[in-house]
């Protein structure tokens, strides 16, 4: 009986320890995609930085639209608070702690990166910028 219980315990422990292995969610898969693209252009890439993401989020740019020189123009300084677009439409908080369902649809993430990066920076964001920014939002 003791041996049978030990075997069952071992099997259960192994099943639990491997149940999440290799199963990444959509956010992790998106970050992996950005990491691969970044590594392809910069072999020295060693990981995303929430600090660089914060800088990207708060920095003012001259290349985009005049009414949206920074991400904070619409999203505000508090990533846990709601924002407003130039037309006054409410924008849900960007921080994962305030909006846990955010960034789970890769197509939607790319759509908004494309639109917002072009409006703020005047160009598409690089995979490094996207990964850094998402890392910042995940840390909030």
Q: Quote the distance from N terminus to C terminus.
A: 50 Å
CATH architecture: Orthogonal Bundle
Low-confidence stretches: 2-22
Question: Tell me, what's the shape?
Answer: globular
Sketch the major β-sheet: 2 strands, antiparallel
Rg over C-alpha atoms, rounded to the nearest angstrom: 20 Å
Please count the helical segments. 6
Order of helices and strands: HHHHEEHH
CATH superfamily: Cytochrome c-like domain
Number of domains: 1
Examine the coordinates and then state which fold CATH places here, giving the name of the CATH topology.
Cytochrome Bc1 Complex, Chain D, domain 2
Class from secondary-structure proportions: mainly alpha
Q: So what's the oligomer here?
A: single chain
Beta strand count:
2
State the gist of this model.
By secondary structure, the chain is mainly alpha-helical. Helices cover 53% and strands 3% of the residues. It has a two-stranded antiparallel ribbon.
């Amino acid at each position: 009986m003791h041996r049978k219980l030990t075997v069952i315990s071992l099997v259960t422990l192994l099943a639990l320890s491997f149940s999440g292995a290799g199963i990444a969610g959509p956010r992790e898969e998106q970050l992996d995609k950005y990491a691969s693209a970044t590594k392809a252009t910069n072999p020295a890439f060693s990981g995303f930085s929430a600090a660089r993401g914060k800088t990207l989020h708060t920095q003012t740019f001259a290349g985009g639209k005049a009414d949206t020189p920074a991400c904070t123009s619409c999203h505000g300084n508090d990533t846990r608070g709601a924002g407003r677009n130039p037309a006054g439409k409410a924008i849900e908080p960007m921080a994962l702690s305030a909006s846990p369902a955010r960034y789970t649809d890769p197509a939607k993430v790319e759509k908004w990166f494309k639109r917002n990066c072009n409006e703020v920076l005047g160009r598409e964001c690089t995979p490094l910028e996207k990964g850094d920014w998402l890392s910042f939002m995940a840390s909030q």
